[in-house]
Automatic annotation (TrEMBL):
Residues 126-216 form the FecR protein domain. Residues 13-54 form the FecR N-terminal domain. Pfam families: DUF4880, FecR. This is DUF4880 domain-containing protein. It comes from Variovorax beijingensis. GO terms for molecular function: sigma factor antagonist activity. InterPro entries: FecR, FecR_N, Ferrdict_sens_TM.
Length: 328
């Protein structure tokens, strides 16, 4: 084995993908030969494989079934489509050769089981934040973007021709100063701002736009709404709702490192915790998921939420390797 030390994160992604490929029922003799070659490249490769085996062998059988179901969808994967995405300016170098070099990475690049490693969409974005990470990005001289956890952004235009951005997923607070228009495309809509500060959340089928200062013009499917400071609007690909008064403090709590819930169904609380916590918390009790929750959480100690849920709401907590937690 070689003594070289490749990137541990890349090796983990490759090892996870190899595991699912070899357990998918689609593996060929050529795959087996390629895997043996990969696993013996270095001690680091072998260690990555041992760690993945430890994680997956400890998974609950139902979770293993979910991974197998995703693996069964592997024939739907289109590697030429990914290759085309990687040819976009500024993305190919970021991806590097590691993903493209392995058959296994392609198998589940689009839909990683349980979200245990980044998808191609995440890796191909111009800017991305990992789980629990926040980041400040300057887009030109007059535009500043604060990215929340699990957020993906692409630039639209470059240099002096930078005109806007695409929010692929996640949440961001955008401050667009100066006299030039700046637009944000997300979820099938377009936001146009000049001299404004606004928060955009796109973590599901709906997009929520909250204006904090100035004014934002929101356009969706031929309809428009003017959103002024202290107001917000929600839309999806089916249309746009009416503008309403916003709870600005609640919208901005993520900037302060605190999550606050007031009579929120536990299932929604778990979804939010999963945005900030590595691994995956899986709720396996629908009745418990409907329980209305009041709590305040610090993002610096997000795992305390699981202790609180157990103590306050009687949930059973089972921890598995890889940051996976089962609540029932």
């Amino acid at each position: 084995m070689s003594s070289s030390k490749p990137d541990p994160g890349a090796l983990q992604r490759q090892a996870h993908a190899w595991w699912v490929r070899l357990h998918s029922g689609q593996a060929t003799r050529a795959d087996a030969d390629a895997f043996r070659q990969w696993a013996t490249l270095s001690a680091a490769h072998a260690q990555a494989w041992r760690e993945v085996m430890r994680v997956w062998s400890a998974l609950d059988p139902l979770l293993a079934e979910e991974a197998a179901r995703q693996a069964a969808r592997a024939p739907l994967f289109s590697w030429p489509g990914v290759s085309e995405a990687l040819r976009s300016p500024g993305r190919r170098a970021f991806m590097g050769g590691a993903v493209a070099a392995t058959v296994a990475a392609g198998v589940l690049a689009v839909d990683p089981p349980l979200g245990l490693w980044p998808s191609v969409g995440e890796l191909a974005a111009d800017y991305r934040t990992a789980t629990g990470e926040q980041r400040q990005v300057a887009l030109g001289e007059d535009v500043s973007v604060r990215m929340n956890t699990q957020t993906l952004i692409n630039r639209i235009g470059t240099g002096a021709n930078l005109r806007g951005m695409e929010l692929l997923a996640g949440e961001a607070e955008i401050a667009a100063a100066g006299n030039a228009d700046f637009f944000v495309e997300t979820g099938g809509g377009r936001l146009l701002a000049r001299g404004a500060r606004f928060n955009v959340r796109h973590t599901g089928p709906q997009v929520c736009v909250t204006c904090l200062d100035g004014r934002v013009l929101v356009s969706v499917g031929g309809e428009q709404r003017s959103v002024e400071a202290g107001r917000q609007v929600v839309y999806d690909r089916a249309g746009i709702q009416d503008v309403v008064r916003a709870d600005v403090v609640s919208v901005s709590t993520w900037r302060t490192g605190v999550l606050s819930f007031d009579r929120t169904p536990l299932a929604e609380v778990i979804d939010e915790i999963n945005r900030y916590r590595p691994g995956k918390v899986i709720l396996r009790n629908e009745s418990l998921g409907r329980t209305l929750v009041r709590m305040q959480l610090s993002l610096r100690s997000i795992d305390n939420a699981l202790v609180m849920i157990r103590e306050l709401y009687g949930a059973k907590v089972r921890s598995l390797p890889g940051g996976i937690v089962l609540l029932s």
